[in-house]
Amino acid sequence: MAEAQNPGGEDPQSPASSRMTSFTQVPIEVTVAVGRASPSIQELLGLDVGSILTLDKALDDPVELFIGDRSIGFGLLEVSEESGDPRLSVRLTEIADLGTSAP
């Protein structure tokens, strides 16, 4: 009788598999790019508490998600109240193919 194999080819009980499982539990930081602004130095020096810096995006434009400098997808900003407090959240609308190498 043939033994069933793991699609990845590794024994799920192997040390390598155990290390990979541990590795996937490491938290990473995701950055959300809401928009960009290009003020002059004079405009920047003129900013004070309460000043408004206008970005290049409309309120309902997609935001881009990054891990480091690599784009991992796009989404829309939302307010969620999962923990009882209103929190800014991102609803994913597009996810990059993370299986390919960075350009």
Automatic annotation (TrEMBL):
It comes from the Bacteria. Keywords: Cell projection, Cilium, Flagellum. The keyword Repressor does not apply. SUPFAM superfamilies: Surface presentation of antigens (SPOA). GO terms for biological process: bacterial-type flagellum-dependent cell motility; chemotaxis. Residues 24-96 form the Flagellar motor switch protein FliN-like C-terminal domain. GO terms for molecular function: cytoskeletal motor activity. One of its GO terms (cellular component) is bacterial-type flagellum basal body. Gene3D superfamilies: SpoA-like. The keyword Electron transport does not apply. Residues 1-22 are annotated as: Disordered. Belongs to the FliN/MopA/SpaO family. This is Flagellar motor switch protein FliN/FliY. It comes from Roseivivax halotolerans.
